[in-house]
Amino acid sequence: MRLYDIKTGSIIWSIYDEERGTGAAAISPDGRFIAVAGNTLVLRSVDDGHVVREYAGAKSNVYSRLRFSPDGRLLVLASTEGLQVWDVETGVMLQTYAGFGDWLTDASFTADSTHVVASSIDKTARIIDLATNQEIRYLSADAGPVTAVIFSPDERYVITAHEDNSIRLWYADRNEAKAALCARLLRDFTPEERAQYGIADDTPTCPR
Asked: By CB count within 10 A, which of 16, 120, 163, 201 is most buried?
């Protein structure tokens, strides 16, 4: 692992840690720390790369992806073992989510750090409410595995990138998505569409 000066391109420090490994890294919003996911999950100092904290029990590997929350308090780890949210300061794992059908490829926070969107090889992306650990939005398309996911700056949309080289734009809010679809449809939702949007009853979704 290396830290570079972006102005000069020179190496500030370089660390070889075969035991812990290096698969993904993220820098904290205040620029003081670097989280590194490999065979373990660790927090390193930007100053010299020394390990500040190791997150015991983290299910990480070289295929993991991780992000700091915008307020710097949380870390989200997306891996082959599911989704984990960690307290950066205490090193405590706050919650996990294992509702995906395959390993995860990416995860991203909302600006207020209350929600996470995560993507998976199972061709879905899902928005998780961190207060309840419940899935509030399920995004699935007839496309390749989702390789990356992020909220738009205004958080109205979710953008997904797929292995088949396609990119998709989704409404983040389920009700806004339903309203937009109803405006285009000349029929009501099919049972499959109701399941996708979490509509439990069989009353008309698109009133005419």
From this structure: 120
> Mean pLDDT across the stretch 31-37?
95
Q: Which residue has the higher pLDDT, 199 or 9?
A: 9
What is the 3-state secondary structure of the chain?
A: CEEECCCCCCEEEECCCCCCCCCEEEECCCCCEEEEECCCEEEEECCCCCEEEECCCCCCCCCCEEEECCCCCEEEEEECCEEEEEECCCCCEEEEECCCCCCEEEEEECCCCCEEEEEECCCEEEEEECCCCEEEEEEECCCCCEEEEEECCCCCEEEEEECCCCEEEEECCHHHHHHHHHHHCCCCCCHHHHHHCCCCCCCCCCCC
How is domain 2-173 classified at the architecture level of CATH?
A: 7 Propeller (2.130)
